[in-house]
Write a structure and sequence with these properties.
With 483 residues, this protein is of the alpha+beta class. It has helices spanning 3-11, 118-143, 150-172, 179-186, 199-205, 209-213, 224-231, 235-248, 254-268, 272-288, 295-307, 317-330, 377-395, 412-421, 438-441, 470-480; strands at residues 24-33, 39-46, 49-57, 63-70, 75-80, 87-93, 98-104, 113-115, 343-346, 357-358, 366-372, 401-407, 427-434, 449-453, 459-461. It contains 16 helices and 15 strands.
Length: 483
Amino acid sequence: MTTGMRRFLILTLMIGAAFGTEAQSYRMTFKLEGLKDSTLYIARHFRDQLQVLDTARIQKDGSFTFSGKRTWARGIYALVHQDGEKAVGNFVIDDSRQFTISADEKLTPSSVKVKGSEANSQMFAYMATEDEAVAELKEIRKRKDDPATKEQAEKEEQELVETMKAFEEKTRHPKKPQLYFDLLNFFDDANVPDSVTDKPYYFRTHYWDRYFDDQSSSWRVKSGKERFQYLKHTPNLYSKMNYFFFGQLYHADSDTIIKEIDRLAARIGDDTAMLRYVFDHIEPRYYRSTRNIGWDAVWCHLAEKYYLAGRCPWVLPGTLTNMRYNYNRIKQSLIGAHGQELWMADTNQSPNQEDWISSHRFPTPYVILWFWDPDCHHCQEQSAELKKLYDDMVAKGEKRFEVYAVGYESDVPKWKRYVREHDFRWVNVGGPNVNIDYQEAYNVHGAPTMIILNWRRDIIMNKVIPIKSLMGFLDDYEKRNKK
């Protein structure tokens, strides 16, 4: 399947409503053979949700007619089942508001017949041709597995690909552009020149060029704010945003993600509605993540530079107060921050501070702060693996790190008993005798929590990584920090 064909199959399921026009009479009828619903809705998209706009009940002949007088935006809308959650399919509202669409219950393109709407006729014809080509391609590729038919199948595949390229070019760029094809072209990915050596970087930094710079649209929209009004009700915009941050940048380091957030925010400028559209989606995901390394730093950057700096006027004061509290708490435990020194009592539970043990004063180059709970099954498994690694390391005389294990358990006798029964020979501390609130200092709000400190006792990891990966992580860290 060609990239264009694959992209098309995604887009045909996801394009939503565009910009608005004046109120006028409309009568849109759908005859869907085999449909079980007694009620249908017309809905528009906003991010990953459907917003119902109109309702029609089944008629005696089995059809559904939406009629009345109202403002309809030019665009491609969803026809939604009576449960209000799943779309039957999509259709166009463009120049005509008086049309009839007949099809099967799934709006399968090859089954669609249209009266009164050239836009719908062209869209479904295009989709039907694409579907037919995809089905043909699947059959051709089955024959590629047979040595007797492989050569002929490869030739047919190449011919089909070239035929579909020509078809797409001709259909998607007509003399009189249809809205559907405008949207289809608009959401194409950035073309990466063959001469570019760092293709991922180019793709990432040019990802939003069509949105902000493209002037070829038949809508003749020049400003970013107008363009957002066109596209905010397309799940394509949502999908494009979602893929960029949580697909393209999913494995990127925090500095890269932060740069791309700032780059996009700078292009959005003073368009508060667009900024909210993006930030309302990405901020909660960066905040909630407990597994992705560096995402807490991304969230702190969002909070500091945008929310707490007054650039998000839609946020309520109470929400900002809570965000400021979380920001002050989380920033202390970010990778790169200096780890706060803990003084805690060991299993002897001496109330005398002179007997307490420091988390920082060990001769080893690394210290692993291990916050664990003897009642936590995952803690038990991970502690057992960590014990094996630690004991093997000590036995070989290659002690690269000390484990400062904090018993995250208010039942001190239970904690002490577990330590004794499992023969944990690292530094075991716990109980109420401690110099600072370690939960606040290291953002510990669950067990297990792992914090790794380097020789300067700066934080180099604040997520639980697999114990089997621990030595490899330290090796990689030392290669990256030879000085």
